[in-house]
């Protein structure tokens, strides 16, 4: 009787082994296959990756890990395992933490090709900038008509009753745009003329003014914001007339909307955060040659200059800009961003976020 | 016997090991104990109101599902409708739909309603939509638990009731005959509806984005939970630890209740092998009711299908095939629909190959233990159902830690996602096979043994032969769940190069939707998944034996 049972189990196991023939032909132990961890929204198309493979003979496999924070956490969790060779998308708000965690190896990239803005947060060989953009408040110009509702000139204006429940931001613990804007508020209120208040006071006032907070950018922009493309999609609520997004989001709206958009980026000095995204060579990987080839390709003039349509961000190289088609550049704002040191962020972010968490409860 | 123990032990390790690994890691980082963290929940934005919201939504969803599901189960169970099998398939297919698609369908439906009413939907409407979405999703549980028993109760019992003084009214018969007969099945289905509403993730995340249940809270903390980096604080590990504890205790109680109630179901004593249903046409009040319910079930699906053909173009929505072209061409995703579908079908077949025999041996073990040691049988039943109660965050963290500590390269193995599929489908195999085993006549096997048939012959020619319809039903269920499986794939599959259809949909939805083609492409891929699942369910429904025991 047991023999028959053993036969059955063996049959099952054989089937399981047989199914193994369907895959796993990769050995991952050569220098010709790069494993990259990136955020979900990284827009590099398969065609471009195939082009890279054709030019260099190096295969690329991209694993998506949520947002910028997800990339960092995956990189830390898999540190020294060699599971990933490169990380794409850790930004300057997380870079201090990443550097403290010692998860990167140096790259040989020529940094003289980058704009000064791209190197403004970090100018070392452990993290190479590949694109950047500013995070700021966007507003719906059909609500802000310049008459009854005027264009805000200070973040304090959003504590006015005209903005009661009409500004939507992202949770700084779960969203990279939310985190960037939160950092901008820290810097904005610590450097403004009023020495009696700081960012905590502003956030508490905003809580009293029923600020909407979502866990991610997509919900804030698509469901709540009245001035974006979300109004044409499923699940639109449209109860917010201002949203935290990129300063060039109106430009992307115009690009896809036939040079037409009601969304406008709010131009307030130091109320925006310059988000710089990096590519890094992860510790534990021994594919230094391939990794350097890929990084050089990504920041090459041919590829990086197209970053405004590849990844909807500004190029990091000198002279790089977003394209002018369909009002893309015309509707995009280049603001005066806040200036906050990445090491300062790393030292204080845990306390700042805990304070925010309590203040907004 | 040894093999049975080996399978039970393997299952226990597969279920519990990731949990222990994740638990140890989180506990080593957390500073505050679980009670301190829970006490602090309402004083932190991340967790505020999440416990009360979770219990409220789960309780109201359960009540609503019973209100909608019981009359439906009654009408499907007591009456024989034209195209009955198709009707039953349509009413039960929502349960195997990927929840991300259900959310998309309901959001699309809300939009159509707001267009018709010329009024944007508010947060309150979204909350009620969430309850209806849960009811829509879990309706199959009530139907599957109650309808088979109802369909085989001999009408003569009810006729006899009518002759008694307390049974001459509808309410009298309901309270004195039907409820005492049906309550274990009703309560068991209610307990499972509660479990699925309690652990709901995608529906809550998409339909009520401004509110969080415990599953969403844990998902939000998932990135940083288990990481010991000073600047990331210990809060994420503490929150996940506390949330998963609340979830685990609640769900285990619900599962114990459900399993205990199912074993108490006495209805089968009155059931016959004959079809006890009364023929009925749609040209009646009951028929109109059934058609209304059909509209309720089909509406979100139709809304999803129609959204796949609508694309925004210069400030207006126009009919277009561009979403479908993109989905099939793969122009906006790493793979196209056909490649993703191929991967999905491959994983679904492999899951059947594994979960069917494992589910069979687990069912067989529970069935045998029920006679010798009912308490142990109950414990094993709960262990089988446990994967449905575990948070994807905990399992994901545990699996990752386990792989990193053994061989990190394993994380990229094509078969790792099978673990998630296996964990989620095997409980349903057991739920299908166990009642079928209980209904088998033990005399048949005993007689065959006396005539000299060995175990293998008895297994092939008697047991498996009699269980064939249930095995087909279980296979279809495994295939459908595996095909639409999103959560576990998302946890582990993202390390591999194999993109399944639900993962492709998730990928399309996770990108900013500036490009007007992205969302219709996701809806098109979702429509394909919907149609395949629907056809599959309809084609195997005829194999479902009449009155298959009052479980799933």
Structural notes for this entry:
The complex is a heterodimer of chains A (361) and B (552). Chain A has 12 helices and 11 strands. Chain A is of the alpha/beta class and 361 residues long. In chain A, strands 1, 2, 3, 4, 5, 6, 7, 8, 9, 10 and 11 form an 11-stranded mixed β-sheet that branches. The radius of gyration of chain A is 23 Å and the shape is globular. The N terminus of chain A is likely disordered. Chain B is built from 22 helices and 4 strands. Chain B is globular. Chain B has 552 residues and is mainly alpha-helical. The chains are: A alpha/beta (361), B mainly alpha (552).
Short description:
The complex is a heterodimer of chains A (361) and B (552). Chain A is built from 12 helices and 11 strands. By secondary structure, chain A is of the alpha/beta class.
List the helices and strands and how they pair.
The complex is a heterodimer of chains A (361) and B (552).
Chain A: H1 2-19, E1 33-38, H2 46-56, E2 59-64, H3 68-77, E3 86-91, H4 92-100, E4 104-105, E5 128-140, E6 167-170, H5 176-190, H6 199-208, E7 212-214, H7 217-224, E8 242-246, H8 249-256, E9 263-265, E10 273-282, H9 288-298, H10 301-304, H11 307-310, E11 314-315, H12 342-359
Parallel strand pairs in A: 1-2, 1-3, 6-7, 6-8
Antiparallel strand pairs in A: 3-10, 4-10, 5-8, 5-9, 5-10, 5-11
Chain B: H1 2-29, H2 34-39, H3 50-78, E1 79-80, H4 84-92, H5 99-117, H6 123-152, H7 155-162, H8 170-198, H9 202-207, H10 214-221, H11 235-264, E2 278-279, H12 285-307, E3 310-312, E4 317-319, H13 322-329, H14 337-372, H15 374-385, H16 392-406, H17 416-438, H18 442-450, H19 455-483, H20 487-492, H21 501-509, H22 518-541
Parallel strand pairs in B: 1-2
Antiparallel strand pairs in B: 3-4
